[in-house]
Give the backbone structure.
Amino acid sequence: MLGEDKVFAALVMALRAWSVGVLGLSDEVFLSSAGVTSEALEDPDALVPYDALVSAWAELHERFPDRSLGMDYGRYVDPSALGMVGVTICHAPNVGVMVERLMRFQRMVDPHFQVDLQRGDDVSVLTMRHEPRVAALHEIMEMFVTSFVQILRKSTDRELVPVRVDLAHPRRHPVAQYEEVWGAPVRFEQPTQALWFDSSVLEAPVVSAAPEAGKYLERYLETLMPTLDPRAPDDASVSAKVREHLLRDLSSGDVDQPSVASALGMSSRSMQRKLSAEGTSFSALLDDVRRVQTERMLARRDLAFYEIAYLLGFADPSSFYRACKRWVDMTPDAWRASLT
């Protein structure tokens, strides 16, 4: 149940400091909108209701409809707002491990924020999803992109620039503003929110990291998981496991729902129930994996369309063509041309 979920108080504390100190919102209004007391926000590692964070953002959306809240807050906040998870990821030896730790402990930061990393030889993709109530608050979704870019830059002490940013919602601000903040071209109203970046970024070392301390903190967070996440770890990561299986076995054709469920050691009905609890479905995951992989493969001129269709597990090239038209309203030829 959404109302029973908890988040670190650090998340609400950081948003409170920014709302009051930068936006000029009164502290009384912020606390009232979040539905928490000042005393509940004294310990950053304490737990507060997840609804407090969502309700506070909804209030900001309503009071500041024209302000670029997501990009502004994303540049303001730092990893400490993620509580102990933020400290832990900042002691990763490199960006790849940092992202893996964030994915592993993401439910301790936000119980409904889903982050998936798809590694590629040249370009990797970080996809971001959230439950419908938050996804409708577009400034939060833009904050996720901004804060991730900022964390990468601060952690590596490099002006890292994404290859591209995809947003699932319509444009809210001038295109030039997005490109200035993120340093990359932006596409709107895409099937999935995603951050595309050069795969070499994953090998970039995290400056000032103490890897041994990071390992200690990682083990400590593992002991806290049962307290902070009442659901079993396997339940919290079913969508990631399904996505991993799909990426590995697409070309084999062995990617129907029953076979994937069996490979994960559960019934088809049980898998679908767990995916539904995570805000997705097997068909949605399969479709998204195919779409992202299609774009990556179309960028390779050495792959014929029939080869891509086979590699992605389509029954025939015609099914692949129809999928392209549904995803981007373009034929594979036109889509490939748009990527040059």
The CA atoms of residues 19 and 25 lie 6 Å apart. The chain has two domains: 2-203, 233-338.
